[in-house]
Specification:
The radius of gyration is 21 Å and the shape is globular. α1 packs parallel to α3, α1 packs parallel to α9 and α2 crosses α3. The chain is about 30% helix and about 20% strand. A hairpin with a 2-residue loop joins β5 and β6. The strands form six sheets. The protein has a five-stranded parallel beta sheet. The chain has a four-stranded mixed beta sheet with strand order 1-7-6-5. Strands 13-14-10-15 form a four-stranded antiparallel beta sheet, with helices on one face. It has about 425 residues and is an alpha/beta fold.
């Protein structure tokens, strides 16, 4: 980066968070609540990432970290229709909830602003360079928290990573969520997983989807929304895309949008209660499930999830979700994943070292980009767990600023004094 192109330099912030998805929002709120002057930078025009712009149906999985439950409670209070489920998402009300919490914490938010580069001295990140309609700005700070999902800041810093699955680099498919209206809720079916079979007069619904829908679409996932007669649809599917490539993201958008009408036509023909359904709207952000896994001081393995391992140096606790590996070659669930028959019902923990890059200082990993294997990632990528990771990052950043320490020298015990202990 030629810093001569920067229109200005900014030294006002101690912590800069890149990406305003659930992990980034939680990090910014927690950092600001604990006294650090914090800036949240987001490329889109709204906060919330996949949970809002991605039109996500619900928070799936769970975590013990307290900020997640605060978000659920506050968003549920804004629901015009008492749907009775805190984890069901109203994207508009969730967006407002995030904004209120950021403002109350004292965090500044900068939308429509893209990360261009990181500022480094040796192996220590000292800030970021961002661009928006006002030009380039270099933000110098003590801590950068990477909540970008793909780990863009970590990548620019030179942090080591593995792309996708360890054996071959392949990644889970991408999805564009959308909503349909005109659904007869008294007759409608709502298969929540790939393994949920629905018998209809015309045949079993999942089998019909594999036969009738254009490949690689071919499964049925339907969820009640917070609004009567409106259902959130998780049925578009595109394989073989790299979420860090603009060309592949364009391919994914086009492929998924071309699937919308065939999916609605299929629902009208074969799904009970959907005979008169129609598209209400689609997400402005495509759902990328997997890209870079960065190498941290510690790495989370599949055994932590399957055996509910309790790490002594944990900062995320009571995390629970199955191995949600979508089929890398087509529709449905990958043979390595499991949902309906996931037998481990206890929560696991995530150590602080998974959030700290192995050799880069001044930087924290927040969300699905933390240090973990492909299989472990298929569990901790769930949004509630990413919120817990973000909370831990925000606490660690504030402690590092306050104490003048390196992030790797902050202890998990110190972080837990802020975010709470596992009961």
């Amino acid at each position: 980066m030629n810093f001569n192109v920067c229109t200005k330099e900014n030294y006002d912030y101690q912590v800069v968070v890149i990406g305003a998805g659930p992990a980034g929002v939680a990090a910014a709120i927690t950092s600001a609540r604990n006294g650090a002057k914090t800036l949240l930078v987001e490329a889109q025009g709204r906060v919330g990432g996949i949970s809002t712009a991605g039109m996500m149906s619900h928070f799936t999985g769970s975590v013990g970290n307290k900020i997640y439950h605060e978000i659920l409670d506050r968003a549920a209070e804004k629901n015009y229709f008492n749907c009775g489920k805190r984890h069901t998402i109203d994207p508009e009300m969730l967006t407002v909830t995030y904004i209120e919490m950021l403002e109350e914490a004292g965090a500044d938010t900068l939308l429509y602003t893209t990360l261009c580069d990181v500022i480094k001295e040796g192996d220590c990140v000292k800030g970021v360079v961002c661009h928006n309609k006002g030009g380039f700005t270099a933000y110098y700070c003590s801590v950068v928290i990477d909540g970008s999902g793909d780990g863009d800041a970590a990548y620019m810093s030179g942090a080591e990573y593995i792309m996708g699955r360890e054996t071959d680099g392949k990644m889970q498919p991408a999805t564009l969520m959308f909503k349909v209206g005109g659904v007869d809720m008294d007759r409608a079916v709502f298969p929540p997983s790939f393994e949920t079979l629905v018998e209809t007069e015309k045949g079993e619904l999942q089998a019909l989807a594999k036969e009738k829908l254009p490949h690689p679409a071919g499964h049925v996932l339907l969820y009640k929304s917070t609004i009567p007669g409106v259902v959130t649809v998780n049925m578009t599917n595109v394989i073989g895309v790299d979420g860090t490539s603009a060309e592949d993201l364009t391919k994914a958008e086009i492929t998924c949008r071309k699937q919308l009408k065939p999916i609605v036509d299929f629902l009208r023909e074969y799904a009970p209660g959907y005979e008169n359904c129609y598209i209400l709207g689609s997400a402005s952000l495509i759902g990328i499930r997997e890209t870079r896994h960065f190498k941290g001081v510690k790495t989370l393995h599949e055994s932590t999830v399957s055996q509910a391992i309790q790490h002594e140096d944990y900062v995320v606790y009571d995390a629970h979700f199955n191995f949600d590996v979508h089929n890398i070659t087509g529709a449905g669930l990958d043979k390595t994943g499991c949902q309906k028959h996931f037998t481990q019902n206890k929560g696991y923990t995530i150590p602080y070292g998974c959030l700290v890059p192995e050799r880069i200082d001044g930087l924290l990993l927040s969300g699905r980009n933390i240090s973990g294997t492909h299989m472990a990632h298929s569990s901790y990528r769930a949004m509630p767990i990413c919120v817990g990771i973000g909370e831990a990052c925000g606490a660690a950043a504030a402690l590092a600023v306050k104490q003048g320490k390196k992030l790797r020298d902050i202890t998990a015990e110190e972080i837990r004094k802020i975010i709470g202990e596992k009961i």
